[in-house]
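Hi everyone, sorry if this is the wrong subforum. Our group has a chain we'd like a structural model of before ordering constructs, and none of us has done structure prediction before. Sequence below.
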Amino acid sequence: MAYQAEYIWLDGYEPTPMLRSKTKILADDVTDPPIWGFDGSSTEQATGDKSDCVLRPVFTCPDPIRGGQNILVMCEVLLASNMRPHPSNTRAACARVEKKFAADEMLFGLEQEYTMLRPDGTPLGFPPGGGQPRPQGPYYCGVGTGRIMGRDIVEEHTQACIDAGLMISGTNPEVMPGQWEFQVGPLGPTAVGDQLNVARWLLHRIAEDYDVVISLDAKPEKGDWNGAGCHTNFSNKAMRGDYKAIINACEAIGKNYMDLVLNYGDGIQDRLTGKHETAPWDKFSYGVSDRGASVRIPWQVERDGKGYAEDRRPNANCDPYIVAKMITEIVCGSTAKGARKR
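Answer:
Right subforum, don't worry. Here is the predicted structure as tokens:
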């Protein structure tokens, strides 16, 4: 007897890597999926004369689509020549930073927005062949025909994530027709990237069966429509115990705001315009309950005097490993500097 292991990885396409996957058949007595290989010349990760790349499993979970003993296997990409991280492997750098600041116990919760499109590229809810639906207003967390599109996909995806054991923590319709969100976390820097990528893969895979395209574009529809982000909630041990640490984290992010925003995904300037619940891409601000700020401090956090903050700038198409790595370095690095000064 045997079972199927779906190996998932990020390719080398720029500026936005795509998820790839292929299936390995494993004997029943194989409990740990082994390393595997693939043709990197077909994924922008190698040349044809040295095409082999290596897949190293980093996270496994039950496969909720195939069921049974079958599993999903999130992998990182290594160079076949020396088994070191491939240049496209952003997870390896995130893991190093997580290890460096392990004592800070950094946690992330990611709010993944996405847009459902027809194969011709028009969003669900927009008139086929052109034209505009009713303006934004009734769609966010709405219910009913004419306001909500694609709920079957959302329900199936949500249950698949639960069955896979992923830390999915919620879903909701978003501001633009055909736009939805799911949340993953709280998890550590690498784990949140692993699980978000598996959840993204499941979403793409389930939408195949409905002939629907899942877009992570930052601004899928031009005009007076919200873009799609991946709002990033973050905290370390100090923030979860002291409001002052939250302010210090926001100030530290503000000192590095441009380095961060330029690594938050393709199309950042199209989305972060200062309109549609965004701050301008080239300015930094933070505030309590302010969805027009770069970083929002939730109202209950101010009330409780401890908790977390939300960086609202990452795009839907961001690399979660890069986002988690950079925020961890800045927030935990500033905490360490503050401790030395005292």
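For your construct planning: The mean pLDDT is 95. The longest helix spans residues 320-341.
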